[in-house]
Design a protein that fits this description.
By secondary structure, the protein is an alpha/beta fold. The chain has helices at 7-33, 35-39, 47-72, 74-79, 83-111, 120-132, 136-162, 164-169, 173-197, 200-203, 217-220, 229-237, 294-303, 319-326, 350-358, 371-377, 380-385, 419-426, 493-503, and strands spanning 264-269, 282-288, 331-335, 364-369, 387-392, 400-405, 414-415, 451-455, 458-462, 466-470, 476-480, 486-487. It has 19 helices and twelve strands.
């Protein structure tokens, strides 16, 4: 019996050992490159969310790279008897694979999609646009960049080959593989739990990495009757991602004419509620200010959108102001506190604002004033010449607020989101309100069944009888609108899904 290894068997053994160490260094490089996905995605902000992020990042990218090694490189160690050829081919494959991962990460960063057949059209159009501007210098730079990257892989491959005998003696395979397996089990276990609970800090990471298909509660827990599928499907249908990475404002271009002879005055009272009635102005009892703070209420009035979008709106002018101003109308805005950078050019001090209103010089005047300032503005001449809307902005819960007006209102319920569409309609603009607001014109005969908005992390939907609160994990609580007591009645998932779809219509994600 011959106990010694043959030269061929010895070479294969060395190549396989070298291949595993070569795969490990590429796993480390791939994990570093995949950090681009994390840096350009919203942070989880919870300990469990960060634990899942780390374990999923390491295990998914690690196993993805190792799988590519098993499919593309490991067979070469058995099929080719030339170590030099194995190293060169492996370096080319690794350089191409990591370059593809980097390209996918940049694509995700810019467009929020991964390389796939669905994104092929987007990639083709973008490539044609970029390549049309490329000269030989740019192509030469890209070729040089890839050559440098390939040479780096080749240097690492040769360095590992020279040390392969020492590496064969190291017993690090079990600890390293155990670490990746532990990360894999933890990440998928956490995702099963998060999917059952619809826990947003984890669930919203589903599309972060390429070729990611984490285990779900539906496929695993329901098999063993550990999950109520009917309840799960209902909560998943109502799940709403509060994270807005961008906004389409307006959702579609707004084109309309305005009437230069129209005058509209909107006043938001920021301190105490208005006691009693205002002579010559009617009161609407079911008006709601659903925002969580006074600054949020002011932005909702100007932009016609819930506070969900306020942070993304900082670089946009309100359509309520920019459209009439572009038509030559005189715009006046007053507020003691700074509203938004894009509103500054319309703001005036108190004396200037008051004089413009009382002397009937403004076509559109919007003031966020105290009750004392309100009394100074509402002269008989102002009431006779302006179409007036007055609301109280100090209410920050879900109880009815106040709305006073001298115009004909055709709605039983209203909210702050409705004020911008109503004002533009009063100025003569007949554009589709869905293009710039989640509200509707209060003077039109719109058969709207509900009011929908956001308050903090909650989605609020109000009907004529109920207030429905949807948490960010899809859980629903229902309250009687008249008594404010919680009731336990069947949920109209169709209505809630319709409301959530309306809320999401301005998110940049919905346009992808």
């Amino acid at each position: 019996m011959i106990l010694a290894e043959t030269p061929r068997r010895k070479l294969v053994s060395q190549l396989v050992t070298w291949g595993h160490w070569f795969a490990l260094q590429n796993i480390v490089l791939a994990i570093i490159i995949a950090a681009i996905y994390i840096l350009n995605s919203p942070a989880p902000f919870t300990a469990i969310g960060n634990l899942y992020l780390f374990t999923n990042w390491v295990s998914h990218i690690g196993f993805l790279t190792f799988f590519a090694f098993v499919i593309l490189i490991l067979p070469l160690c058995y099929l080719l008897s030339n170590a030099k050829a194995v190293k060169i081919i492996s370096s080319i494959v690794s350089a191409l694979g990591l370059a593809l991962l980097a390209f996918d990460a940049l694509l995700y960063n810019k467009y929020g999609v991964h390389l796939s057949f669905n994104s092929a059209v987007l990639i083709r159009d973008e490539a044609q646009t970029v390549m049309s501007d490329f000269g030989w210098q740019q192509w030469g730079f890209l070729a040089l960049l890839f050559i440098v990257w390939f040479l780096f892989q080749l240097v690492v491959a040769n360095a590992l080959w020279q040390r392969v005998k020492r590496l064969q003696k190291k017993k690090l395979g079990l600890p390293i593989s155990s670490f990746f397996v532990a990360c894999f089990v933890i990440s998928h276990g956490l995702h099963v739990w998060a999917d059952a609970k619809l826990y947003q800090p984890i669930v919203k990471q589903d599309n972060m990495f390429p070729l990611s298909y984490p285990a779900t509660a539906k496929t695993l827990m329901s098999r063993y009757s550990l999950l109520d599928l009917e309840d799960y499907q209902q909560r998943k249908a109502l799940q709403f991602d509060q994270t807005i990475s961008g906004i389409n404002y307006p959702a579609t271009p707004v084109y309309c004419a305005v009437q230069n002879d129209q005058k509209v005055l909107l006043l938001g009272v920021i301190d105490e509620e208005i006691n009693g009635s205002i002579p010559g102005i009617s009161t609407m009892s079911q008006h709601y200010g659903l925002q969580s703070s006074l600054p949020s209420s002011i932005k909702t009035v100007l932009y016609g959108l819930p506070e969900l979008y306020h942070s993304a709106l900082s670089s946009y002018e309100p359509i309520l102001l920019s459209l009439p101003a572009s038509m030559g109308l005189n715009i006046s805005v007053y507020s003691e506190e700074k509203i938004a950078p894009k509103v500054d050019k319309y703001t005036q001090n108190w004396d200037e604002f008051k004089n413009n209103v009382r002397q009937l010089q403004s076509n559109l005047a919007i003031g966020f004033v105290s009750t004392e300032g309100l009394s100074q503005l509402l002269t008989t001449e102002v009431q006779n010449n302006y179409q007036i809307l007055i609301t109280h902005l100090g209410q920050t819960d879900t109880l009815p607020s106040q709305l006073f007006s001298n115009i004909n209102i055709n709605k039983k319920m209203s909210s702050h989101e409705d004020l911008a569409p109503t004002i533009l309609n009063l100025l003569g603009c007949s554009a589709n309100t869905n293009a710039y607001s989640t509200g509707s014109d209060l003077t039109s005969d719109n058969k709207r069944r509900y009011i929908v908005s956001t308050q903090g992390s909650k989605v609020l939907l109000l009907t004529d009888k109920q207030r429905i609160e949807i948490m960010n994990n899809g859980n629903v609580r229902i309250f009687d609108l008249s008594t404010n007591e919680e009731v336990f009645t069947p949920v109209d998932t169709g209505l809630l899904s319709q409301g959530i779809k309306r809320l999401s219509s301005f998110s940049a994600k919905s346009a992808r």
